[in-house]
Amino acid sequence: MSEALRWESQPPRLTLQGELDRETLVAFWDARKKLMSGVTTLDVSGLERVDSSGLALLVHLREEASQQGSALTIAGITDRLHTLIALYNLQDIIPTDSLANK
User: Any idea where the STAS domain is (predicted)?
Assistant: First the structure.
């Protein structure tokens, strides 16, 4: 069973902790519009595990921000998440260079 996904909102930063997978992301998905309001940085450094569903959520959040005329930086990308992004060839969608990780 997956560990719960937790978040802390301090706009313009939203920090995620725990596991971001198909079992844990539903509560976040349901609250995302309110949670993402005013957020320009999504800190994922506290995520212990991300699966393909979680990665899809990150892609979707960046796209939603873009459609609203703002940019969403994903900060704290771990080596594991970096590998998952590379496996799906999403580096252009979720930049994983050193600037995006700070």
Answer: 14-102
Structure tokens at 56: 């899809």
The type of residue at 36 is M
* Domain of residue 36, residue span: 5-87
Strand-by-strand arrangement of the 41-50 sheet: 5-10, 13-20, 41-50, 73-75
| Tens digits of residue pLDDT in 21-61 | 999 999 999 999 999 999 999 999 999 999 999 999 999 99
Q: Quick check: 50 and 20 in contact, CB under 8 A?
A: yes
Which CATH number is 38's domain given?
A: 3.30.750.24
Cα distance between residue 33 and residue 35, in whole Å: 6
Rounded CA gap, 94 and 20, in Å? Answer: 16
Residue 99 placed within a domain: no
Token output for 15: 């920090």
